[in-house]
Amino acid sequence: MRLKVNGTTHEVNVEDDMPLLWVLRDELGISGPKYGCGIAMCGACTVHVDGAAVRSCSLQVGDVSGEITTIEGLGSPQAMHPVQAAWVEHQVAQCGYCQSGQIMAAASLLNVNAEPSDEDIDRAMSANLCRCGTYARIRTAVKAAAAKLREKKP
Predict the structure, then answer these.
(1) Which residue, 6, 18, 26, 1, is CA-closest to 104?
(2) pLDDT digits (tens, 9 = 90+) for 26-65
(3) 26 and 67 in one domain?
(4) Quick one: 127 and 100 in the same domain?
(5) Do residue 87 and residue 63 come from a single domain?
(6) What are the angstrom distances between the C-alpha of 154 and each of 79, 83, 149?
(7) Which CATH number belongs to the domain containing residue 20 in this structure?
(8) Tell me: the pLDDT tens digits for 63-102?
(9) Less Cβ around it within 10 Å: N or C end of the chain?
(10) Rounded CA gap, 14 and 11, in Å?
């Protein structure tokens, strides 16, 4: 089957029911999405399919239609995505294990809501667990990224 991941088309020879996470990590060598719980509860495996956040641990690769973006493809070689930059600026990460999923969830939120309220952020991000508890920093970073994205729009 063919998958478009981070702008590149890949041919993979896998069973349709293989979780997308394993295809990304084991077949394509993309290590940004993490295995956390395996049941779509923690969010460490979050990637985008056509801009929408999905849990790659529970999504069968045969059910994927659309372009896949992982944390590796979110920014560009020249510049981090505003969410990534806000994460660094506000020192969100502690252990860092959940951060690629957190960032992908935040970027997906900002794709559909340019001015999220605290409640919007909490609702969108609450499905992604952070064992270090940096939720206040996450909210601050999401708001900062939203402001940067609004500045870029004409």
Answers:
(1) 6
(2) 999 999 999 999 999 999 999 999 999 999 999 999 999 9
(3) yes
(4) yes
(5) no
(6) 19, 19, 10
(7) 3.10.20.30
(8) 999 999 999 999 988 999 999 999 999 999 888 899 999 9
(9) C
(10) 10
CB 109, CB 124: distance < 8 Å: yes
Report the domain count for the chain.
2
Each residue of 78-87: b (16+ CB within 10 Å) or e? Answer: eeebbbbbbb
Residue type, 104: M
Mapping DSSP onto H, E and C, the string for 51-105 reads CEEEECCCCEHHHCCCCEECHHHHCCCCCCCHHHHHHHHCCCCCCCCCHHHHHHH
- The verdict on 18 and 62 lying in the same domain is yes
Q: Which residues contact 48 (CB under 8 A, 6 or more apart)?
A: 54, 68, 69, 70, 74, 104, 107, 108
Q: What is the pTM of this model?
A: 0.93
Judge if 63 and 106 occupy the same domain.
no
Q: Which of these three, 19, 39, 74, is where a domain ends?
A: 74
